[in-house]
Amino acid sequence: MAKKDNENLYPPVHFPERGRPLKFTPRKLQEKFVEYVKWCKDNPIVIGTEIKNTSVEGIPYGSKTIEKKPRLVSIGGFLVYIGASRRWWGELDDSKQDYSAVKDLIREFCESYQKEMAAAGIFNSNIISRLLGLVDKQQQESRIENRIVVEDKDQADKIKTIGDIG
Q: Do 92 and 47 touch, CB atoms closer than 8 A?
């Protein structure tokens, strides 16, 4: 059977049947995540560059260079893979079955994978730090503002004079 052109898109979208909610047991959700991670590994992002004008360091004119980069494993990508939404993901906690352990493992796997790939220079560390909500200490600004709410101009003048004393 021939592959469809969209099978290597990131990631292939599996839409649920119309009107039917997704039904996963915690075990089935875990199995689907393992399937998604395998798909990401088996379908790296292919970046091709064609050299048109001159030969560059031994690569002849008109050649194509192909580079394969691993796909980002993320909760968002996983949700697209199974045809689910963030809202559905959040509502799993309200169900009768206990999804917390599986969700925690999925979240931890995604975060550690992203950090390791960024540390190895495979993924852009700035993008990964934004995805994970990490902030460089130099980027943090501490702003403390004291505000006093007054009812009229007389009170505002009194407060101003108190501030001038100290």
A: no
